[in-house]
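Example record for the data management plan.
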Amino acid sequence: MFKEKNYVVIKNAISKDKADFLFRYFKLKREVAKTMFAKNWLSPYATEWGQWNCPQIPGTYVMYGDVAFDCLLEELRPLVSKHTGLDLVEQYSFARLYKKGDELKRHKDRYSCEVSTTLNLGGDPWPIFIEPDPTKGTKDSSGYKSEYTKGIQIDLEPGDMVAYNGVDLEHWREPFNGEICGQVFFHYNTSDHAQEHENKYDGRPHLGLPDNFVNKRLYKFPDGKVKELDKEQLKKIRHDDYQRQIKAIKE
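Corresponding structural encoding:
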């Protein structure tokens, strides 16, 4: 099914009990991070406890490469490989606690998200939309351009997951009317890709590390443009983002 449609729904990828535990863990981690940032226990450059300055949805708590979620990324790889028919290599996990009014704009992902999944941890229902035609939606030097097709609505219960070709298929979520929704994304590359060894673990030495362990990576700016930045450039951007993060925490 995946090779024909470029997406597949995987019911009960994890148990509802495990999903509920991870949902509670993620919410508590957000509260701990909020307190530690507010009390200046964390450096403004710290990302290992999550952040609120992701340009895609500013002010919403996100977590890149959390140790628990990266463990699940590794644990679920055989299941995702089985349902996609692809030999996969782990890249990174990325989790969000969405809040009321959030909207995931139409987009396509970067190279490390060749095969992406989103797993519902809990909270209020919120469907994801996928456009199955890879020719719809284009990226160029001026940014991302959507044709605003209807797409396919996919509803997931806690513990359910959908795997899709994140690089080729446009995907999005409409404005959120609920109060909270926890989702964690797992990203993989196919093992036969030419850049697989260079890109393994999204450029990190191993799983469980925050994104500032990456020497180079793609960065998405608030205007939608994506550029490759080296470590020093990333450091400056993180410093600029810190002011947005502090504002979001105070709100």
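Summary line stored alongside the record: The domain at 2-250 is CATH 2.60.120.620 (Jelly Rolls).
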